[in-house]
Amino acid sequence: MTIEPTRRYRLGVDVGGTFTDVVLADSATGELITDKVPSDAAQPARAVVAGVFGVLERAGVSPAQVEHFSHGQTFALNTVLQRSGARVGLLVTAGFPDLLAIGRLRLDDPIDMFAEPARPLVDQRDVREIRQRHRADGAVEHELDPAEVVAAVRDLVADGVEAVAVAFLHSHKHPEHERRAAAAIAEAFPDLPVACSALLWPEEKEFERATVAVLAAHVGRALGGYLAHLSTALREAGLVCPLHITRSNGGVASIDHEPDQVLRAAVETLLSGPASGVAGVVRLAADTGLRDVVTMDMGGTSVDCAVVRGEVPYSTESVIGEFPLIIPSVEVSSIGAGGGSVVRVDRAGVLKVGPRSAGARPGPACYGRGGAEPTLTDAYVLCGYLDPADFAAGALTIDVGAARAAMAPVAEALGLTVEQAAEAAVSVATAMMHAQLVPLCAQHGVDPSALTMVAYGGAGPVQAALLARALNVAEVVVPASPGTLCAYGALATDMRVDLVAPIGGATDDAELRKAWDGLETRALAWYGEQDHGLHPDVRVTRWADVQLVGQSFTLPVSLPEDAEPGVPALRQGFAEAYRRAYAVDPGPGELDVRSVRVVLAATAELPRAPWRASGDAESLPHTVIEDGVAVPALVHRRSSLATGAELVGPAVVSAPDTTIFVPSGCRAVVDGLGNLRIAVTPAERKAARA
User: Fold this and answer.
1) For the chain, which domains are there?
2) Which pTM was predicted?
3) What mean pLDDT is predicted for residues 244-263?
4) Phi/psi of residue 311, each to 5°?
């Protein structure tokens, strides 16, 4: 008789530009084992497989004992940012060939008279007009001819197009022509990816909906190939559990997609990596009793920030590169200042940090891999915020001389010493992050000083306390494994789906209930297909996009769980949302409900193990640069800090996945879950403002 191994372990993976992070969690005890391996830009699945089976071997766990695998990735996002995906052809209703080129005629920077408009992802030569037309009321003004569609696509394919997007007028309410066009294309070109706007996200706003289809077509084939390769490699290596990918909405879904589902996955996973981190922070906040936090996820190329007030923040107005994304996504603000960001002096003699990054190869000069340009990490080394003797648990040797040589030209150009130039670079990076976070907090109507900062990513804990000073944030929380929090978020996050249906101004309670009920039925069916008993706590919430009659912009309104679905409940919710957004009462105007939504979220059960220090606490003498002065400090090894251990800044805390810098005037204590909680004293914050 063969005894099946007990499945009790969950794997979370986050694929970043520099490192691929892996977390193995024991679902019975909450114990975590983490690892980081270098990412492989050419073959990202290779790094995932290496990291997964490396951590399984360390833990003595067989692949058959894994019950859940989920991963976040930046593959899809980078494909869009680098415009390296498929060449896309676009089919539009005759008379609308400039749909993408015109866009919204909105200036991102109104005072810049020389601003260049966003360049569409589809070249104008790859747009084809199709003589078909639905009116807004659903009447067919001009019937679709499938032969015309096939002829247009044949012309595009002959010209080198690799995928097709279809975006017809009013198709969000009347998708029949898009469906028929897709069927005709599939019959004539069975291997050609076809993305239909109305099938991906049936919401009004022609430009944004067309952009969704174009993004899906651009990324779909590349992402599908990556997921297929990853799935095959994991299966061949013995992993038999369901495989999942984190989505932009902060949830997870299966990666065992049918071909037509890959296109949906492509556009729904564009913010997969950052969303995993925010999901991890939400779980951390629940475990530690935090409510209002600002996240700081700093890696090698950028800093991702979000304001979390009890739940994951969502937006339907995200921007991917230069392209709007109306699909609900975790609201994350990014800035190009990561640990690998290049430090330089521009032609005007101004010190700049980023947005260009040294990447994983060659990386910062101090890594000794041939990098010659100074980076923010080199500045940290020269300021003493990193310990060269115990960086990444000894896995990487830090070359201080190389960092000094790289920073020397910057120092010379500024007339400063190398240490002064390094500290100036850190100050510039801090100012850049401050400038990004202040308006983000203002959008949420919260003073930064009322928030707790949660710092993670490989570089976040180095920079966090300095940024907290600038923002007057009183406390910084560094998780027990900050360098792998995004991977932990991937395995701990909810299973989630967002569905939308256009309703076009309906104010009849029965019609609204019918639309919501239909979406809820679809959401529950999706959950039945996706879940494998690991996400038992299911919640369904109902939303609507509402405006006043005559307005052009809607507000999302949630329906309280105990409210009777209908206009009265929406009116109350709309008034509250309107006051939050505009600080005035909407008045008695008639409501215009444009679309309804349903969100299903199913929570995973996962305990957290208490923190246990390994080894005796020890500290070694060190020196840091603060305000141009060399200051005595201590270096601590994080694994040796027991619960309740207190540190007084300046101090450097070394860990395998990150380094934590505690500046002068700050105190830190280890809590019961291993989080290092850094308090910035009021006196220090006043000094920071002076």
Assistant:
1) 9-80+225-242+262-269 (3.30.420.480), 85-222 (3.40.50), 495-603 (3.30.1490), 619-680 (no CATH)
2) 0.85
3) 78
4) -155, 170
